[in-house]
UniProtKB/TrEMBL annotation:
Entry keywords, A to Z: ATP-binding, Cell inner membrane, Cell membrane, Membrane, Nucleotide-binding, Translocase, Transport
Membrane topology: Peripheral membrane protein
Nucleotide-binding among keywords: yes
Keyword Chaperone set for record: no
Source organism (scientific name): Pararhizobium mangrovi
InterPro entries cross-referenced by the UniProt entry: AAA+_ATPase, ABC_Ni/Peptide_Import, ABC_transporter-like_ATP-bd, ABC_transporter-like_CS, Oligopep_ABC_C, P-loop_NTPase
Alphabetized Gene3D superfamilies for the sequence: P-loop containing nucleotide triphosphate hydrolases
GO CC list: plasma membrane
GO biological process, one term: peptide transport
MF terms (GO), sorted A to Z: ATP binding; ATP hydrolysis activity
Name this protein carries in UniProt: ABC transporter ATP-binding protein
Amino acid sequence: MSVPLLEIRGLEAALVRPPHAPLLRGVDLTLDPGQVHGLVGESGAGKSTVGKAILGILPKAIAVTGGTIRFAGEDLLKMRPSRFFSLLGRDIALIPQDPMSALNPARRVGAQIADGLRLRRGMRGAKLREKVLSLLTEVQIADPEAVIARYPHELSGGMRQRVLIAAAFAVDPKLVIADEPTTALDVTVQKEVLRLIRRMQARHGTGVVFVTHDLGVVAQLCDQVTVLFEGRVVEQGATAAVLAQPAHAYTRALIEASPRHDRPDSGMRPIPEHIITALKAERVHGGEAADG
Ligand SMILES: Nc1ncnc2c1ncn2[C@@H]1O[C@H](COP(=O)(O)OP(=O)(O)OP(=O)(O)O)[C@@H](O)[C@H]1O
């Protein structure tokens, strides 16, 4: 039996300060190599917390309190720090939400893409420059020779996100965590960037955990989907099946509430109150503390 690329079991996280409000309540998720798994839910559902727990970059206020996160069979939560940091940036990479704050404003973009290749692949000189240029071409940046010498503020938001995609895929990671990578972009650019991520992951055979509040994005990009509500998995499965025949009332409501892509300004509509109430009741009856 092949080992999943990523296998999360019973992941729990909570606020560090009393009363230690739980944020993740036993999240399970399995990702096979080369697959794209969408993590979807409303704001505050815990999507980013899952992504950050995988990357070991949870804010100080949040701690993992239970469960396992296995990457190719090894538990990231139990790994020696030196081993964990050798995986980050080489086997596991991040495409962040906000390209401007992820890039160093004082360094040219070519140098920033080159960092991972120098550090993780030992590339130098002309070979390194060639590789950076070919990555920029791969993410469809015209005139890469000129772009490597630019500073982040000299590029558009879409170009900056392409630069970060190039940086994430530069060292051929096995797993990419994409945390709402198109939220800051306008709708037309969003579509191009999504297509680009899909193409890059297919070409590089990369597994992707894609954090989004947008089921339209899930439909376009993801093989599998996990629906989160208040830190708990409500529904999980192959995207086509879940979207065509959602088993849970919350998923159905989320589909109905999703922004219409033919009307980009339509926004997300609220989930009906009775469904939220029923979900909270399910949690209480499931034996968990009624903490909110
Ligand atoms: N730095 C922090 N300190 C305290 N609580 C936090 C912090 N970051 C997140 N939280 C809390 O953790 C919970 C889950 O947040 P998370 O960011 O994972 O949700 P999300 O589903 O990604 O939502 P969004 O789409 O708004 O980012 C929320 O209740 C949030 O208030």
